[in-house]
Amino acid sequence: MANSKAVNESAMLDEILHGLKRPNKRLPSKYFYDEMGSRLFDQITRLEEYYLTRKEKEILQNNIDEIVDNIGTRAMLVELGSGSSQKTRLLLDQLDNLSAYVPVDISEKYLLKAVNELRLDYPRVTIIPVFADYTNTFRLPDLSGSYENQVIFFPGSTIGNFSPDETQQFLQTMASLSDREAGMLIGVDLKKDREILEAAYNDSKGITASFNKNLLVRVNKEFGADFNTDQFTHKATYNAGKGRIEMHLISDCEQSVLIKDEEVSFEEGEYIHTENSYKYTLEDFESIVSKWFTVKEVWTDEDAFFSVQYLDKK
Ligand code: AVJ
Known about the structure:
One of its GO terms (molecular function) is L-histidine N(alpha)-methyltransferase activity. Helix content is 35%, strand content 25%. The protein is built from ten helices and twelve strands.
């Protein structure tokens, strides 16, 4: 487990070429997070317009006692896409009876850095990192007798990257990871005015634009492609019918790009669809999870922009 590489290079290249050779070009959003992408995302989380991280932290802080009660004692706390582990600290500060903390991340470098820092600050917590792409199935460490409750912490509305169908499959997988009690503590972004949503993904400093274009920079670096990032424009639009923000990279002109031996050509105005970020009402979300989980608690901020929810395995 610990030595296996989470991202397989040739599978990544296949996925990228496959996505770019379709009539409607697309690239998978999970590839945003190389080192530069993770750093840019970190900057996004501190932007004025990007309310998600701020609101989520506020909700966690304001309801920490109830949240800790729901996690219970002797829990294995599994965090998906742990990133910089900032929100984790809010929990670890208050949980004094954890069986283990298991961060799962696709970016090995970021994960190890975060784990080293956490180990210094929380010497009494058993921390077991897992390098994995959690969008595929992965295995949890075998703690057999030593925990009572498995709680999957999935903050940041990362669940929004999955379509409703993928969300249901994902929840089924999460429920099947444990043979005993299993809950999820999950951050879910809520539907709201288009202006607010679109501003969060088209920030005035252009950080989100750099984050989006970094996908092309990464393909250049890792696969020797020759994307000219100056000839693409970032745009995020709220698709109200589908309830999701869609991020695009629009080709400013007719151009072609070479990736390995493959030529990919663009018309002027043609775009690559790089990310979906689904937004839910509380009712929508409840009906999506209801096959596998029950919504036990919902906490929101005063504007009801964001929610943190505790789900129980059925
Ligand atoms: C990490 C998937 C929650 O959808 O808001 C932020 C990623 N993309 N700005 C989101 C993202 C552009 C983010 N998630």
